[in-house]
């Protein structure tokens, strides 16, 4: 039986990357394959891939969903105006989002918070979250977020520095298309146009899927017994074209390599029902831990993850517990940069 302590390690704070490498592909990359561990660079990815391999990218687009506003209440009741910061974590409908709000204790159901030229009413308050119904909806609301919001940097970066204009580019992939994420698919942040073109020229194929990354990706696992953890849910889709691309690659002996744990989770979700990849869309709360049977994933490109996280458990499921421990021990000793803006790894079981 696996316990939370099996996935713990000490991470020096200085190894948490607060800014990405420039250019994007300049990041270091630790490669794990049958021959052992190899120190490389993302720019050299092509030398580890073969003609006919397929990279699977998550084309979700991050919404600048951290808003600063003011709570307004009738001053007759003795309240004035309170400053509120709200970070959207899940879309409920066209005009309604679940959000983390600070300070939460100052909000009650029925309160109105003004964010620039839009406002939102607090509809629900539970489990440390609020449900906000906005005065705009759909694309108009998304445009307001782009105008008024900041990138929702992960807590381990946001606690060290505020988001700024540079993050609007840095925290978005070069192929982001489908709006809906509140966190970036960070393994894909290493790719730029030059790297993508070089890989295509050597015969490495690519396809795109969508998984709208939610804030739940940063939630800590609180149960000591791993199997008791309730996984967060995220919306995703595998198109007919992506399913065909993956199936054809496997049929022809190529390797299917999701770029990031989010791309891996959605393609494995789509393959779980029949054991073969098929078009699929919906909410997934797939929880991949050691013992999981991978249906379509041949290898994985991913960053270095938080201790005790579900993402680290996924890595251990793919390469094995002992190899995962070796990978992280090497990354720590060689001072690889960790988390969203950090270095990369290519894991080939």
Give a structural overview:
22% of the residues lie in helices and 28% in strands. It folds into two domains: 4-62 and 167-347, QueA-like, CATH 3.40.1780; 66-148, Beta Barrel (Thrombin, subunit H). The strands form four sheets. It has a six-stranded antiparallel barrel with strand order 5-6-7-10-9-8. The protein has a five-stranded mixed β-sheet with strand order 14-3-12-13-15, with helices on one face. The protein contains eight helices and 17 strands. The two termini are 22 Å apart. A hairpin with a 2-residue loop joins β1 and β2. α7 (310-319) packs across α8. With 349 residues, the protein is α+β, with helices and mostly antiparallel strands.
CATH homolog superfamily of the largest domain? QueA-like
SSE ordering: EEEEEEEEEEHHHEHEEHEHEEHHE
> What proportion of the residues is helical, as a percent range?
10-25%
Topology, number of strands? 17
CATH fold group of the largest domain: QueA-like
Portion of residues in beta strands equals: 25-35%
Q: Report the mean per-residue pLDDT as an integer.
A: 94
Report the radius of gyration as a whole number of Å.
21 Å
Number of helices: 8
Q: Trace the largest sheet across and list its strands.
A: 5-6-7-10-9-8
Q: Report the principal-axis shape.
A: globular
- Please give the largest β-sheet: 6 strands, antiparallel, barrel
CATH architecture of the largest domain: 3-Layer(aba) Sandwich
- Poorly predicted runs: none
Domain count, please report it: 2
Structural class: alpha+beta
Classified by CATH, the class of the largest domain is: Alpha Beta
The CA-CA distance between the termini, in Å, is: 22 Å
